[in-house]
Design brief:
The complex is a heterodimer of chains A (693) and B (585).
Chain A (H helix, E strand, L loop, with lengths): L2 E6 L2 E6 L4 H7 L23 E4 L6 E2 L10 E3 L3 H16 L8 H5 L6 H9 L3 H8 L6 H7 L3 H5 L11 H13 L16 E5 L3 H12 L3 E5 L8 H4 L8 H14 L3 E3 L10 H7 L2 E4 L5 E2 L12 E3 H9 L9 E5 L3 H12 L4 E6 L10 H9 L3 E4 L1 E9 L2 E15 L5 E14 L2 E4 L3 E2 L30 E3 L11 H19 L37 H4 L12 H8 L14 H8 L17 E3 L4 E4 L8 H10 L4 E4 L6 E4 L15 H5 L5 E3 L17
Parallel strand pairs in A: 1-5, 6-7, 6-9, 7-8, 9-20, 11-18, 12-13, 12-18, 13-14
Antiparallel strand pairs in A: 1-2, 3-4, 3-5, 10-19, 15-16, 16-17, 21-22, 22-25, 23-24
Helix pairs in contact in A: 4-5, 4-8, 4-18, 5-8, 6-8, 9-16, 13-14
Chain B lengths: L1 E6 L2 H6 L1 H15 L3 E4 L11 E5 L2 E6 L7 H9 L13 H8 L17 H6 L4 H7 L4 H11 L11 H10 L8 E6 L8 H8 L1 H15 L3 E7 L3 H16 L15 E7 L8 H8 L13 H4 L6 E5 H13 L1 H5 L9 E8 L5 E6 L4 H8 L9 E6 L5 E4 L9 H6 L8 E6 L4 H15 L5 H18 L7 H15 L3 H5 L2 H9 L1 H10 L13 E3 L9 H5 L5 E2 L7 E2 L9 H5 L5 E3 L1
Parallel strand pairs in B: 1-2, 5-6, 5-8, 6-7, 9-13
Antiparallel strand pairs in B: 1-3, 3-4, 9-10, 11-12, 11-13, 14-17, 15-16
The chains are: A alpha/beta (693), B alpha/beta (585).
């Protein structure tokens, strides 16, 4: 052995003669991807992802099998190498039938790891669950109560019976943690000395504050209102989210982290944006969308016509707006539901919801619609205000244009078309327009807006036209959305801002993951167990006050509900080399190479190990480790070409009976194809949901 | 003395040669005319072939003989005048098939009795080995091979002397060195090696023993695919005879050189034709390629120095040793010396085994020897090198047989498969056929071959089924380059060649499939449309009666109509219509 010097990516690296390019690169901190290399076994060269280019060599070489030549120059990052590597990963992913992450997590705008925290809830570890939730979402008790839960819409349990009650379980765990006397508090990184000013204390602003403070920055949140919480406080009625009892407590936790809060502060009035920026290293604009959209029909200026979110805010602030006894709410979304149920609680005797399509097209949550009905609200579908008729300047009646459904529009819903000459008139004292909201960006003139007058922020960096100003939430791009969407943007923006402040900005890129289609999955293996219903106060009782409607799950219900999780996401996601490298090599789309895949099926073959063919990359490490390292060789390759699979040697099922359960195969597996079923104590690792006998 | 010899290679036997022999033997026994056998002369399209000899001279060659011809043959042989056999006698045109060849590797095929070492010796057999062992040094032997310019006939064309010399120089760990013959001939349509073993096994043994001496081998192994049972039987028999005659075993031909030979039957995996996979298989492992380096000359069979050549390469060696390297090198081109054997098949008039000097044009081989295209159709291309090779269009038939010249076309010399295609062959379908083969024969070890060829096959399949998409051609090209770059062994690295060469020369066919959903060669059933023209249909009902899918409606004397939704596009209607009323496009 003698010392040799080679150059890899322009860096001089020292190695020993006889060593491979891969070994020398690894030792020098150059991470060349490989899936089939393992120091314990002989070089194999199957995966083909470790290709490198050598100067003066016409062909790409497998670095795992190429003995480094003294003085040679190698490249691991040329376009040719990257292209070859990417297509190798694309090929591997095109034959990968597995879910990296659960559909719940993928469908959550904030990427909350539902599968992981449900497991903790099922096992009784609520604070551990909250710790997992707060990796993405700092307001779980509040959001758990109000979120329209996209996670549940994607939940695969719906194909067995019904989706899991993920949102309510979140609030169950968060309440338990919040009132435990020993609530979860995140670790704060060492102080960076960087100052961040956040304008707007709603879900987006609070989330940005939480994550930026966690990273050690000095964070101050400003809000034009006297209290914090934004639309969570001023747009959502008390009966759905108790403000002092829950929301403020979660904000207090953020304050305990060292975030400063400045209320009653309005940019443009108290300070110019320019001055504000000058005081901060970075500014986050999260001002929301606080203005109700107009109905654009005659009579809108009459007394007794209210904007939906203005109406809600007034009530929450303690006002008693004069809505009279008969109220019409226009709109079909959750704000309309909040408004009609609030009107009921203010003593209105007849409350109508006017919606231009049918119930099937209503964007409001089904449970909200049902609960409104229970509280006596009457729904009028397929009609729209044509005119609000007044008497003495006050609303007297609303003339409704009767509608019918026409062709589907851009949203996929059938659009309402007026039925000519068909009208109906309702006698009402007030009309509440809950048909949308828009941004009031007074004071932010220096920030560029898009066509619709909303702040334009880059979707990867969240940066506005001003280099140190970032923007998230309802005030940006697509306009008003649900709270968790603002939280998701704020969390991602916090990472970008942190990297920006540290001098090497990393834009957010949605990571590539492997996903299965529900139609490819056999759900009949699972035992059916119905979804837990949230206990609520009866309609007659709750319509008289603003106290919380939901009573919360009892412990037994919650644990059992959480245990319904099918655990769709891969157990190995965090350690999987395949996905780590596929993401690094910027594999974005494997649809173009889509073709036959090996099916995703599991078999308990090696006594204590479960094997999943859909996730196997045929690197043969399990076979080789068992043969060369352990010395027993229980496994082998069977079949040819694309049908090659790993089976007990010579496809003799009994071959693995003498397995010593050393687990080395599973440990060597670069993906989640092999899973150990027992813990160190020999106790079987429980799977929450039950399979059919 | 008059005697007859029947061609009994696998091809002859398949055509009925053994039956002819059984029919002739009792009849000729009375006349005292001996019946012998020989191997394959290469004219597969004329089998069974019966040769009539006067002593050592071939006086008449009877072709396409059947058992029914036996009495007539026996009767004619009993008399002086053989003109009664004129109808069975080979035509001058067919004789051109042999006359235009230069036979070295095949020099004894179809002439000697493959079961008899004495017959081989009578034709100068084992003279080369005796010459080598009577005083030539290893270096001198290798030098003769070097001068001859002999290159590996298995396909890659690597200089034989270089491999031999590397193995000779390589240090063995325990004193063993191995000489291996690759007889795992797997290319679809290639059967040169089988013919040599079946027809002239001693030639192979002699060639191998000369090589064994040159590298200092202690054992020689022939890896024959199990699908060649007759070759194995004849080689086993030949090995026994050679051993008995002192050409194998201890102190060969009285020299100090000792080396024995054995046969290993392969289990029928195409990839085992790849030399390192072959070694893995020899050692009892699953046939999967090893990483190179180390090359087999350094660490091959049992990690010892090993030399691997294919059958045809060794079959040239005895001739080179007896005639001299220079004589061999006089044939051929600047870069490719000697001769090459081809298995000429496909839409050609005269198909079979041909051996021609390097430097001959494709046109001379396909039209001069092969007689051109059958049924007066137009020639489209020739596919060379099997699944690893590519196609060369008719317009380029002036290309000469030469490693470099062929590689420049995108095809390869290959092991000798030469499949001739006419205008009815769909080139996309042809590429799909080969990718289907490689996909199934890939060993499954490396990602690029295991999944890459599968994806190539899937894309080709959808194109031929009318589901090709815009961008598929570019995707094919990108994948082909990736697989070539990334695959571990020759199988995968060359698997995209059939796609790349058809894309290069017949891109318009791909475009027609994808954009117009038409197969210009009318071969891709899913893209065809059969139609009955009312003005020509007289309502004879023939098509409707012949339609296996009952997809044709109509009554007698009224024009018929094909229900396209039910048509399975088998073409029966077209074939049965006597009025030209049915067309396909």
């Amino acid at each position: 052995m003698s010392e040799i010097r080679i150059t890899i990516d322009g860096r001089e690296c020292i190695g020993q003669s006889g060593e491979t390019v891969l070994t020398i690169a690894k030792r020098n901190g150059i991470d060349i991807p490989t899936l089939c290399f393992d120091e314990r076994v002989k070089i194999y060269g199957a995966c083909g992802v470790c290709l490198v280019e050598g100067e003066g060599m016409p062909k790409l070489m497998r670095s795992c099998a190429t003995e480094a030549r003294d003085g040679a120059v190698y490249h691991t990052d040329t376009e040719r190498v990257k292209r070859a590597r990417r297509i190798a990963f694309e090929l591997l992913m095109s034959d990968h039938e597995g879910d990296c992450l659960g559909p719940c997590k993928l469908n959550c705008p904030a990427g909350t790891d539902c599968q992981a925290y449900l497991k903790q809830i099922a096992q009784g570890n609520d604070t551990e669950a909250v710790k997992i939730i707060k990796d993405h979402l700092p307001l779980p008790a509040s959001i758990g109560r109000v979120c329209p839960h996209p996670c549940e819409k994607a939940c695969r349990r719906q194909y067995v019976d019904e989706p899991i009650s993920i949102a309510f379980l979140k609030y169950f765990a968060a309440d338990n943690d919040l009132f435990s006397g020993n609530k979860f508090m995140p670790e704060i990184a060492p102080e960076t000395g960087k100052k961040i000013g956040i304008i707007g204390g709603g879900p987006g602003g609070l989330t940005a504050a939480y994550f930026l403070r966690k990273k050690g920055h000095e964070v101050t949140v400003y809000d034009q209102m006297p209290y914090f919480g934004g639309m969570l406080r001023y747009g959502i009625p008390e009966y759905r989210l108790p403000k002092d009892g829950i929301l403020q407590k979660e904000i207090d936790s953020i304050a305990e982290m060292g975030v400063k809060f400045v209320p009653n502060y309005k940019i443009g009035r108290d300070e110019s944006l320019e001055d504000f920026r000058a005081r901060h290293d970075a500014t986050v604009v999260a001002i929301g969308a606080w203005t109700s959209s107009a109905m654009r029909c005659p009579g809108e200026d009459l007394k007794g016509v209210f904007g939906g979110i203005h109406f809600l805010r007034e009530v929450i602030e303690g006002g008693r707006p004069a809505i009279g006894k008969r109220v019409a709410i226009v709109g079909g979304g959750n704000t309309a539901m909040d408004a009609c149920r609030t009107a009921v609680r203010l003593g209105a005797e007849k409350v109508y919801v006017i919606y231009r399509r049918t119930e099937a097209e209503m964007p409001a949550e089904k449970i909200e619609i049902a609960e409104a009905r229970e509280e006596g609200v009457e729904f009028k579908f397929l009609c729209n205000p044509a005119q609000i008729v007044g008497e003495n300047g006050r609303v007297k009646e609303v003339k409704l244009q009767i509608m019918q459904l026409g062709e589907p529009d851009a949203s996929g819903r059938r659009s309402p078309v007026p039925v000519e000459g068909a009208f109906e008139t309702l006698q009402v004292d007030s009309v509440i327009a809950a048909i949308g909201q828009y941004v009031d960006a007074a004071g932010f003139e220096a920030i560029e807006k898009n066509r619709r007058g909303v702040i334009a922020a880059d979707e990867h960096t969240f940066r506005t036209n001003l280099p140190d100003v970032f923007a998230v939430g309802d005030a940006t791009n697509k306009g008003a959305d649900i709270a968790i969407a603002a939280i998701g943007e704020a969390g991602k923006a916090a990472d970008v801002i942190d990297s920006f402040l540290r001098g090497a900005e990393v834009p957010y890129v949605k990571p590539f993951v492997s996903e299965r289609k529900p139609e490819d999955i056999d759900f009949t293996v699972w035992e059916s167990y119905p979804r837990a219903q949230m206990p609520a106060r009866p309609g007659e009782e709750r319509r008289c006050d603003f106290a919380e409607v939901n009573k919360g799950f009892d412990e037994e219900t919650a644990r059992r509900e959480a245990a319904r999780c099918l655990e769709c996401g891969c157990h190995d996601y965090k350690d999987c080399l395949l996905i780590r490298y596929a993401q690094r090599e910027q594999v974005l789309d494997v649809k173009r190479l889509a073709g036959e895949k090996h099916p995703n099926y599991t078999e308990e073959r090696l006594v204590v190990i479960e094997r999943n063919q859909g996730k196997c990359v045929t690197c043969n490490l399990c076979v080789r480790v068992c043969d060369e390292e352990v010395g027993i060789g229980l496994l082998g390759l069977v079949g040819r070409g694309f049908t090659t699979v790993i089976k007990p040697e010579f496809n003799t099922p009994g071959a693995t009976d003498v397995c010593r359960t050393c687990l080395k195969c599973a440990q060597a597996c670069p993906t989640g194809a092999l899973r150990i079923l027992f813990d160190q104590n020999g106790v079987r690792i429980p799977v929450s949901a039950k399979k059919r006998a | 003395m008059r005697r007859i010899v029947i061609g009994e290679g696998s091809c002859g036997i398949a055509a009925g040669a053994a039956k002819v022999q059984s029919a002739l033997e009792p009849l000729l026994k009375e006349a005292g005319i001996p019946v012998g056998i020989t191997g394959c002369i290469g004219m597969c399209y004329l089998e069974p072939i019966v040769d009539i000899y006067e002593d050592k001279t071939l006086v008449r060659r009877l072709v396409r003989v059947s058992e029914a011809d036996a009495p007539a043959i026996a009767a004619a042989l009993a008399g002086e005048d053989l003109s009664a056999l004129d109808a069975l006698t080979i035509q001058p045109d067919d004789e051109a098939f042999l006359k235009k060849q230069t036979r070295i590797a095949l020099r004894n095929c179809g002439i000697v009795d493959p079961t008899d070492v004495i017959d081989y010796e009578a034709r100068g057999g084992y003279e080369g080995l005796k010459k080598v062992l009577s005083g030539m040094s290893q270096e001198e032997v290798i030098d003769v091979i070097k001068v001859s310019g002999l290159a590996g006939r298995g396909g890659a064309g690597f200089p034989t002397w270089f491999k031999w010399d590397a193995a000779r120089k390589s240090q063995s760990k325990n004193g063993s060195k191995y000489l291996i013959c690759n007889a795992d001939e797997g290319d679809p349509g290639a059967f040169m090696d089988r013919a040599v073993i079946e027809s002239d096994p001693h030639n192979l043994i002699e060639g191998m023993m000369i090589g064994a001496y040159a590298i200092g081998a202690t054992e020689a192994v022939v890896y024959v695919r199990a699908e060649y049972p007759l070759a194995i039987v004849r080689l086993e028999n030949a090995i026994e005879q050679a051993r008995a005659a002192g050409y194998l075993g201890r102190n060969i031909c009285g020299s100090d050189f000792s080396c024995d030979m054995r046969i290993k039957a392969g289990a029928g995996a195409f990839v085992c034709g790849e030399e390192t996979a072959l070694i893995e298989s020899l050692e009892g492992h699953r046939g999967m390629p090893r990483l190179k380096p180390p090359f087999p000359a350094q660490a091959g069979y049992w990690q010892e120095p090993s030399n691997i050549n294919n059958v045809e390469t060794y079959a040239n060696v005895p001739w080179i040793l007896t005639h001299g390297g220079e004589t061999y090198a006089q044939m051929g081109t600047e870069t490719s010396k000697g001769t090459k054997v081809f298995a000429l098949t496909g839409k050609v008039v005269r198909g079979g085994l041909v051996e021609v000097p390097m430097g001959m044009t494709l046109r001379d081989v396909i039209f001069g020897i092969g007689g051109g295209i059958r049924d007066g159709r137009k020639c489209k291309a020739v596919q060379m090198g099997g699944p690893s090779g590519g196609c060369i269009p008719y317009e380029m038939f002036d290309t000469v047989i030469d490693y470099k010249a062929l590689a420049a076309t995108g095809a390869i010399m290959g092991s000798g498969g030469m499949v001739v295609m006419d205008e009815t062959t769909c080139m996309v379908g042809m590429a799909k056929f080969f990718l289907d083969f490689t996909t199934k024969e890939s060993c499954g070890k490396c990602v690029h071959c295991r999944i890459g060829t599968k994806r190539l096959y899937e894309i080709l399949t959808r194109i031929t089924e009318g589901n090709g998409r815009e961008g598929d051609i570019e995707l094919l090209e990108e994948l082909c380059v990736a697989v070539k770059d990334g695959a571990l062994c020759g199988l995968g690295q060359t698997a995209p060649n059939p796609v790349l060469t058809t894309l290069r020369y017949f891109r318009d066919e791909y475009v027609a499939h994808i954009e117009k959903k038409k197969c210009p060669s009318l071969e891709c059933a899913a893209l065809l449309r059969y139609e009955i023209h009312a003005d020509k249909c007289i309502g004879c009902t023939m098509c409707a009666r012949n339609c296996p899918a009952k997809a044709i409606d109509g009554t007698v004397k009224k024009p018929h109509v094909i229900r396209q939704a039910d048509c399975i596009r088998c073409g029966q209607c077209l074939a049965s219509c006597r009025f030209g009323a049915i067309t396909v496009e």
